[in-house]
## 1
Amino acid sequence: MESLIFYLSPVAGFVFMLTMIMFLTRLAAGRKSDRKITMILVSSFTVMLAMIVYVMGK
């Protein structure tokens, strides 16, 4: 399981940062964020949090 987390953590981090940039750019432009962008942001954050909790629990 640790090897899976090791390989997936950069992907989850990249997706999180990319969607965070998209989210903040839309907010800075004065527009509301799309629901799809918000859900991807929340789900990637949840995956990263779950990986951290799993690793810290070991």
Note: Residues 2-57 form one domain.
## 2
Amino acid sequence: FVYFLGVVPKPGLPFPVALPPLYRSPPAPFI
């Protein structure tokens, strides 16, 4: 589920920033 969230939001969108650090950690390196 975390992986999917990281793939949907693209770099520049407020999605990864609004999500908590727990969910933001995985998408950070991916972006």
Note: The two ends are 16 Å apart (CA to CA).
## 3
Amino acid sequence: MRQNLHFQNARSSSSGLGISNGYSGMVGRADTTSMIEAKYPAVRFKQQLTAYVEKIYGTMRDSLKREISAILTLCIQAPRAGRVRASRGSLKSIHSSALSRQASSVHWQNIVKCLNHTLETMNNNYVPPMIIRKTFSQVFAFMNVQLFNSLLLRRECCSFSNGEFLKAGLQELEQWCSRTTEEYAGTSWDELQHIRQAVGFLVLHQKSHKTLEEITDELCPVLSISQIYRIGTMFWDDKYGAQGLSQEVSNWKHENNDDR
């Protein structure tokens, strides 16, 4: 402000000499005052525009979350007909399992349809790619929390066959991110790290042969030991009858009581 006032005084002194500003035909003082007054409406307009964009962005994001949330409840657990043991390999059970997988994949495809519809709507309305990326990244983070918490809270979701069901659904989302490209999907796929690693653990064969270091460093690096232990102890193999965590890993958790 001091600099602006100094500039104004300098122009005032030049007006006393009858020197025009060479632009509007007016002397310097009036033109400078106009410039100072115009500065503040521009700032207010910028603030109002920013608030308006943030409100629209939040509305679009929350609307997509609500749509997907209703479908996610159908994607968390595989249909009961699909959870059959391999030993029951009759033609009837195989046919029933195939039908249930086909029906359950529809729910994941409905999520993809919601994502595509939102992307098309935003593109048709010339929404900047930066806002599109941010929208999808936050929605994928929301899905990650919902799915991962379901594994931690519901033992029936921690079976081998349910892990296969979730893995197939996550592949649908991975393919969507690949088709959409990073320009619009951004870091969406990375936002699913927790559920991806948890599902990878559920469908892993010979879990009982894995050491704690192999699990924490290679298989589930983003999960805490407590989260791994909880999923591992709730795991049940409804397909092959295999064990979950090794006794060594279970004993280590009890001895150290590690809550990381």
Note: The CA atoms of residues 188 and 238 lie 31 Å apart.
